[in-house]
């Protein structure tokens, strides 16, 4: 078979009986099947993820060889994330960034055994805050003698932007509503950076304008000079 002929016929033809290997029509007819199954590109595609914009799409064999990539939350295409989330019974919010969605899909299975617990709620909120670019300081207080089904969630954000504040508060509430036990109720408290007023040369003291209660929570709304628990 000469070089010119080999360029216009399918390599699949070599697997046919000898009498059919010389039939040019059959060789050209098999090109369609080779294109779909194996691809006709001389150089394999460097893209493991195939999208609508991919040029010179590989054949099914190469796609199947890389199919594990589609099940990796950190590598799968963004439009594939909702489908992948469905495999782990996770509902993704539209206002989550792709990085947040990927982090939840990757870790949610291991957290199902903690669902409805204090530890589980803290971990879920930490995953969101960390991947949304905020400090992942989360504290949950649930020791209230007169309110056995009540708990308080305290978050620390590192941004004072009002729009971001309310957006994060809304998302945090949605996460808590989904993860908390049905019979419980809660309050959400968010700490943000505030103005600093030094009281000494080494700035070792800080002015606090809220009162810490015996159960570990604050009855005021602002800690002036810090965003940490005192």
Helix and strand topology:
Elements: H1 3-8, H2 24-29, H3 31-37, H4 60-65, H5 81-87, H6 98-111, H7 118-131, E1 137-141, E2 150-156, H8 162-179, E3 185-191
Parallel strand pairs: 2-3
Antiparallel strand pairs: 1-2
Structural features, described:
Helices cover 34% and strands 8% of the residues. The protein has eight helices and three strands, in the order H-H-H-H-H-H-H-E-E-H-E. Helix 8 links the parallel strand 2 and strand 3. The chain is elongated and about 95 Å long.
The structural class is mainly alpha
What is the assembly state of the chains in this entry? single chain
Number of helices: 8
Radius of gyration using CA atoms only: 29 Å
Uncertain regions: pLDDT < 50 for 5+ in a row?
A: 1-6, 203-210, 220-230
The percent range for strand residues is 5-15%
Mean pLDDT: 76
Distance between the termini: 84 Å
Secondary structure: helix percent: 25-40%
Number of extended strands: 3
What is the strand arrangement across the widest sheet? Answer: 1-2-3
Helix-strand sequence: HHHHHHHEEHE
The description of the largest β-sheet is: 3 strands, mixed
The best one-word shape is elongated
Task: Summarize this entry quickly.
By secondary structure, the protein is mainly alpha-helical. 34% of the residues lie in helices and 8% in strands.
Properties at a glance:
230 residues, mainly alpha, three-stranded mixed sheet, 8 helices, 8% strand, elongated, disordered N terminus, disordered C terminus
